[in-house]
Amino acid sequence: MSELALGIDIGTTGVKAVLIDKEGNLIREVNKPHDLISLKSSWAEEDTAAWYKNVVTAIKELLASGIESNQIKSLGISGMVPALVLLNEKGEVLRYSIQQNDARAVEEIKLLQQRLDPQEVYRRTGSFINQQHVGPRLLWVKRNEPDVWRRLRAVCGSYDYLVYRITGKLSLEINWAVESGLFDIWEQEWIPEFLEAAEVLREFFPPVRRSLEIVGEVSPSFAKESGLRAGTPVIAGSADHVASALAAGVREEGDLLIKFGGAGDILYCIDELKTNPRLYIDFHVIPGKFLLNGCMASSGSLVKWFVVNVLGQDATPEILTQLDREAKRVPPGAGGLIVLPYFLGEKTPILDPLARGVFFGLSLHHGRGHIFRAILEAVIFGFRHHVEVLEEMGCNIRRVFATNGGVKSQLWTQIAADILGREVRSFPGHPGSALGVAFLAGKSAGLFKTWEEIELFLRHSRCFIPDETQVKLYQNAYSVYRKLYEDLKSDFPLLQPLQHIEVKN
């Protein structure tokens, strides 16, 4: 029987579980959907019970395919970061998770900006206070949900929570800490004065672990529920975008990944720790490597929003294929229709939680193909904005990779090549973060000896070459995209009072 590694990813729209072997084979993959919950404007939450149920169900399905539990030598979990899961003294979840793309803590961001020196925050954490940081969101809970705060005893992330449920051991993988805004990335320790400003106790945070560290074993109770073997080692896991970077072969300085997930990530590999105020920074799972990280709050979630909320249909492969066909008949620039993709505010590179989605240039001749194409283009315009920031830093982009659900669309990936003006290598059948964290689990168990062995899983790819005619056509559309936000950014705060008006029966 072959030895296997299990990787599980807790994504914005579902759980994915994969089994891999040391020869570079993807043995089995299972997907279980769940929903992003947005009860109010700018809120982004998820139900941790749905995550757990999907994880158990996915593992059972993997084992039902004839896999023996003793074949699985190690387990790793990746997930959205830094999502907030709040636990009481019994380790029970106190409320829905508050996701990393949640933008509710506007007043708390302002308050922390008054309490802390922005330059000191940037110097020690690598970023200015923003909606992704943990401090503002925790402070929001304290100010708005005092009963939850009174019972709060521990804080962890999405994948850390599942590691806890599986092993009974609480931990925080290092990139959750790095992206929290409360952790010194140079000294690798919590910053007492930042915790005090956010009114957060140091005791809330479990021990910080590196991705490959084994933090525990599959507990007897979880083994009974899932079918896994009790005692199977479980590693600390990985932030989803970092696992995706590894899974796409991003190993050397100059490698760039664009990730078409529910949110949009862009990661650039560097050999030394350096920061930029318009980007985040992460520790690569490969020792001695780092990742400059851009994150757009909305990407694939915009596609799902359009199909489900506007068209009133399920986001099935069939409807997405049909929309691709309609959008392909529309020229670059979507017939003069430009979209700002800031439906949940925006993180990098503009760091504006008050920004909102905009459809600019609508005319009666526009149909759903125009609108759909404009949404696809908007996400890539956002990626291009990040590329320009990297170029301003003197970063030389060597190779561009693309992963996750959006690359199943050849149209969308070709749009990426044309707007970026670079060859893009995509992995349409690639399980992304789940593969990356499965490889980490396998490496911890000795299935893989070197980081280069990730190439065993990258045999099937597509290459998209930019069309120079299309590249030129996109120059004007991109210029309008950039100008549009600058023209509107001072007006977005005017929408705040309107977002809180309730209908009275």
From TrEMBL:
Residue span(s) of domain Carbohydrate kinase FGGY C-terminal: 286-443
Q: Name one GO biological process term.
A: carbohydrate metabolic process
The record ties this protein, via Gene3D superfamilies, to:
3.30.420.40
Q: Name one GO molecular function term.
A: kinase activity
Query: What positions does the domain Carbohydrate kinase FGGY N-terminal occupy?
Result: 5-246
- Keywords (A to Z) from UniProt: Kinase, Transferase
Q: Which organism is it from?
A: Thermanaeromonas toyohensis ToBE
Give the matching SUPFAM superfamilies.
Answer: Actin-like ATPase domain
Superkingdom of this protein's organism: Bacteria
The UniProt record lists the keyword Kinase: yes
Family of this protein:
Belongs to the FGGY kinase family.
- Which PANTHER family does the annotation name? SUGAR KINASE, XYLULOSE KINASE
| Database matches in InterPro entries | ATPase_NBD (IPR043129), Carb_kinase_FGGY (IPR000577), Carb_kinase_FGGY_CS (IPR018483), FGGY_C (IPR018485), FGGY_Carb_Kinase (IPR050406), FGGY_N (IPR018484)
Name by which UniProt lists this protein: Xylulokinase
